[in-house]
Amino acid sequence: MKTCWIIYNGSLVSDKFLDQARLMAEACHNAGVQPIIYKNYEILVDLSTPLQNKADFVIFLDKDILLATYLKNQGIPVFNDPEVIETCDNKAKQYIKLAQAGIEMPTTIVAPKVYPKFTIRDSGYFEGVLHKLGLPLVIKEAHGSFGMKVYLIESRQQFFDKVEELRGVDFIFQQYISSSFGRDIRVNTIGNEVVAAMYRHSETDFRANITNGGQAEKIELTTTQKDLAIRAAQAVGADFAGVDLLFDENEQPLVCEVNAASHIRNIYNVTGINVGDAFVQHILKKLG
Predict the structure, then answer these.
(1) Which end of the chain has the lower number of beta carbons within 10 A, N or C?
(2) What are the residue boundaries of the structural domains of the chain, listed by start?
(3) What is the pTM of this model?
(4) What is the pLDDT of residues 87-111, one digit of tens each?
(5) What dotted CATH number matches 3-80?
(6) CA-closest candidate to residue 275, choices 286, 266, 284
(7) Domain 86-90+179-287 class in CATH
(8) How confident is the model over 224-278, as pLDDT tens digits?
């Protein structure tokens, strides 16, 4: 019997992280694979001693890229690959990849690196961004989950306050898609297929994330929505992805972002589909 390590971050005390691991473990059992759930700190990254009793593969539900890289270098197939996790965890890197692949998305500008004790406030750069994108616009820190560290900027003062606050932080400027206020679609892809999808909406926030109070329901995707979600996942190299789609002014899809460690409990509750089942089957097929 094959064995699978399912790894999540042990410093995050919310039950939803262990719950995610348990859903994946259930999928392993369904496929005849023996799962072992580990907190990330329960695997010692001792670079002086080879790892013993290795799993046949790892389902990595964390952003501990160093641990994921260590496991890959020990010869264990890791899903998603640590390079994919790192790309998706840094929104700036992710959007560069998506743009390279010609993925339809809001107009995006990657902010230049500015060191914490310095500023480019008087360079004219920020005025150029405002001229290009207009107001309102969205600022996203490169590292953030569950819709956090995403800011709707509605005034020049708010804009300049935020960019000064973010000195030393990677972030991006992005076109605000007013037609998608408080609504999006989460699409879970496995390999080259869509496995599940839900429509999310909020009456009180421009973000539709359920963590921020949004609601969700089943949705039948259009061919265009399916195709875009799959192409976005392929662009970042993800075997398993949660692709968030926005609605443009013509109700056509735009990619908001791709998540490489997408939580699957909410989509399970809405659709009755454990995305982990398709993920494990995909891994077993890929391993041969």
Answers:
(1) C
(2) 3-80, 86-90+179-287, 108-176
(3) 0.94
(4) 999 999 999 999 999 999 999 999 9
(5) 3.40.50.20
(6) 266
(7) alpha beta
(8) 999 999 999 999 999 999 999 999 999 999 999 999 999 999 999 999 999 999 9
